[in-house]
Amino acid sequence: HYHCMIDLLGRAGCLDEGESLIIKMPYEPISITWMTLLGACRMHFDVERGTRAAEHVFRLDPENAAPYVLLSNIYATANRWDEKVKVREMMDDKGVKKQPGCSWIEVDNQVHSFIAEDTSHPQI
Q: Given this model, what pLDDT does residue 124 score?
């Protein structure tokens, strides 16, 4: 239930309360706990808190690309381009890869899949 509360507080813009709840939890937070707060920081443009949350996720789940991408997007929104580049370089240095976006569409009972930046589909 802690994650639900953190999500609700984050969506409501109560990021101080969300972070405080994480710190006061009776057990050690896991990566999804901090990812929930990180997503709220992106939604509400809280760069400093987002940086703290991302650092926790980096430590707890170093191969997960999501916190790198979220933090990079937070920095880009704040026009902090040097930090954005550093986050992307950290991903490269650690060998963390983002899964490309993928979409499916059914046309005439045939499913076609499209992957971001892929031009190998025969009808492209």
A: 60
According to the 3-state scheme, what is the secondary structure of the chain?
Answer: CHHHHHHHHHHCCCHHHHHHHHHHCCCCCCHHHHHHHHHHHHHHCCHHHHHHHHHHHHHHCCCCCHHHHHHHHHHHHCCCHHHHHHHHHHHHHHCCCCCCCEEEEEECCEEEEEECCCCCCCCC
d(CA 96, CA 109): 37
Evaluate whether 67 touches 38 at the Cβ level (below 8 Å): yes
* Cβ(67)–Cβ(57) below 8 Å: yes
The model's pLDDT over 15-47, given as tens digits with 9 standing for 90+, comes to 999 999 999 999 999 999 999 999 999 999 999
pTM for the whole structure:
0.82
> What average pLDDT does the structure give for the chain?
92
Picking from 80, 39, 73, 75, the residue whose alpha carbon sits closest to that of residue 57 is 39
Cβ-contact 42, 11 below 8 angstroms: no
